[in-house]
Design goal:
Length: 115
């Protein structure tokens, strides 16, 4: 459980902060060049792989969120690398539900990791 708590203590606050701040600054993604999107994908993929190298197990408790977050980061990173020209949006109907979910998962992980 030590590994789960350590990863959650790092990943949780980062996920929470990124989700909230991307919502606040949603307009910046509209005009981002494809190269920047590709670089962002590389960073996300690296983070996801790092989580999965150290925590790839599934359990019927909160630690499954750690593994799920690793896979989500990996897949999001690959998608951004594979499709850097994809239409980026700042439409609240698309972005806000996703970022709210990421913020909630980040909050749960932060609480589990720090308490």
């Amino acid at each position: 459980m030590q590994t789960s708590e350590t990863i959650a203590a790092i990943l949780g606050p980062v996920m929470f902060a990124v989700a909230i701040l991307e919502s606040v600054h949603a307009r910046i993604w509209k005009d981002v060049p494809p190269a920047m999107t590709f670089l962002n994908g590389m960073i996300l993929m690296t983070g996801g792989l790092t989580v999965l190298v150290f925590h790839s197990g599934w359990a019927a408790d909160w630690t499954a969120l750690v593994t799920l977050s690793g896979w989500a980061l990996l897949i999001a990173g690959l998608a951004r690398m594979a499709f850097p020209d994809a239409v980026r949006t700042d439409t609240p109907a698309v972005m806000y539900p996703v970022t709210a979910g990421v913020a909630l998962i980040g909050l749960v992980l932060a609480v589990q990791g720090w308490l």
